[in-house]
Amino acid sequence: MACASCHNPDRAFTDGKPTSVGFKGRVGQRNAPTIFNALYNKKQFWDGRAETLEDQAAFPITNPSEMGQPSLDAAVATIAAIPEYQQAFQQVFNQPPSALNMVRAIASYERTLVSFDSPFDHFIAGDPNAINDAAKRGWTLFNTRGRCNRCHASVNQDATYFTDFRFHNIGIGILRHQVTPLALQAMKEIEKGDLPNVDRAAIQSDFSVLGRFLLTRKEADIASFKTPSLRNVLVTAPYFHDGSMETLWDAMDHYNKGDGVKDPWLDDDMQPLALTEDEIDALVEFLASLTSAEYKEFGIKELARQRTLSRISRSQRDTARAFGPKPLQPKAPDLLHDALLESRTLRELVCCAALIIFERTGRAIRSPAVETTTSHAGKSIGHSWVFGLNETLDPTGATVGPLDSWNSPEAVSFRKP
């Protein structure tokens, strides 16, 4: 496996697959984003789990579903055995290959990959003939009724990056997954800030649908993903973090109907758009005009391919919803409260209670638990954590009796608030 296995330069540094295939044919959960203009990202990956390009470069190398190396040092040992790499590292870093310099080299290369030379760039710079009339109409719609600029450009129609660098829930994947149980399970199984485990969960498991929540544990971040740049979007199909949309027409149909009606965490800007077929075609023409010069021929073929598919199948189209009112959004469940109700051990109960207090007051608490060896009902319960008599953990309503084992299901006497 190489970086180019998923980020093919011939496909604008993507792989053309819904989700990438890695080490030993393992299929991941995320679509490979382009790395054009990645140096401008404020955070890396779909969920922002890496702060820098150097951090980003390291994760795929050791992820079992990507490059599958047991460690960065193992990867270094492989390249260090190649004379050309030995010479290159000595020339650039004045030292043999190392893990630090390996990710620095990858990140330095990524910083050279910029894309700001599309027909639209020539149009915005003053050439009125650089794009066709349909694309010009699409640009107007992009900034008005299409509402695309809410996330893909600033309010002053900044046409530089075509992303706000933020994270949004746009209703992708919600219907295919039981998101609330997944969020509760993730809270129990993955420690906040455990980036290696977050990385593996994002690529290898259904936890992937939770998006940025895996990292932040903020309920507002459930199923939120980074806004991708729209540059070269035509040649980087399929679309969205899970590659679930095959064409730009599918993506536009998703937005047109304001998809996510059963998603309690849906972004406020998602709503029915009432765009006609001609208007959707115009928006696609505009998006096609963001294709870099080096992908012009590929772009022409890809636009024709997607147009043909759109005339055969439009699985996301729902005209009634697109032209109807915005449906009422379901109320978001209180995940911390639900986690508390599902607690079966004292450990889970106290962790949930502490998390509730921290989330709602910003105040961290320490339990008065003490470590001891004791017995209960004539039986030794061994080395365990115990709490004082009838200690109450507000605001949960949970009470803990004497000599309760930290891990025992019988440790908790719980009444719902």
Plain-language structure description:
- With 417 residues, the protein is mainly α.
- The protein has three domains: 3-35 and 38-110, Cytochrome Bc1 Complex, Chain D, domain 2, CATH 1.10.760.10; 119-174 and 223-322, Cytochrome c-like domain (Cytochrome Bc1 Complex, Chain D, domain 2, Orthogonal Bundle), CATH 1.10.760.10; 345-414, no CATH class.
- Helix content is 37%, strand content 7%.
- It contains 17 helices and seven strands.
- The strands form three sheets. It has a three-stranded antiparallel β-sheet, with helices on one face.
- Strand 3 (370-376) and strand 4 form a beta hairpin.
- Helix 2 crosses helix 5 and helix 7 crosses helix 13.
- It is globular, with a radius of gyration of 25 Å.
